[in-house]
Amino acid sequence: MSGAYIVGVDGSAPSRRAVGWACRIASIDGGQVTLVHVNDPTVAPDRARGASALADAAREARAAHPGLAVHEELLGGPVWRTLATRGSGDDVLVIGSHKTGYLHGRVTGSFAARIALHTRTSLAVVPDLDVRSRVGVVAGIDGGPTATAVAEAAARRAHELVAPLLLVHAGTTHGDTLAVAAATARATAPGIEIQSRTSTRLPADALLDAARSRALLVVGQGSDSSGDAVLGTVLHDVLLNLNAPTLIVR
């Protein structure tokens, strides 16, 4: 990987999961990791406590992954906005989330959803779950403008993890959407095992069901008719009901 994994750190259990996930993936694909703690001036920040949480996370990361390049940054500002604007290009922003289980939109706000809408990079949202024994990558293919990018990213991740790739399309049929995605994935990572699945279930339910026992879910952010980024109801429901690390491709 040419970019860096930029991980939000606050000392919480979801944050520790995010750090562990980013370090494991970086150790596989050759990326580097930058741990970031943000002191928000609007919520009585404790700079010393933030620095301590950052130092603890870096120490644990280096101990678990000797030789991995791990950097630290202590920033200030509104947390979600500061994280959303940190990174560019091939970087992947990584955050932890405590939102697991089926809420079906009953929760109206989401820190991850806000960042997903505004970040300039791909975003990985990691639930507070132990997924180290899981195998496989799932890609949500919707026929939209990000379908090619999703298929390519999912294929690369499947190749790196030496894992099978499952392409899932739910809802209204879009002709040869899955066939095109499968061809894209094969061209990106020849030799990986690829399966395709269509579903008549609600898209978020179909994706979450497929991701339940797998190591990674890859989805697109979505866009409107003008090409501007939007956060659709499918991605919103996925983020509120996470059951696997989820990579949102820009």
TrEMBL record:
Transmembrane segments: none annotated. CDD domains: USP-like. InterPro entries: Rossmann-like_a/b/a_fold, Universal_stress_UspA, UspA. It comes from the Bacteria. It holds the Pfam family Usp. Residues 6-127 form the UspA domain. PANTHER family: STRESS RESPONSE PROTEIN NHAX, UNIVERSAL STRESS PROTEIN UP12. Belongs to the universal stress protein A family. This is Nucleotide-binding universal stress UspA family protein. It comes from Diaminobutyricimonas aerilata.
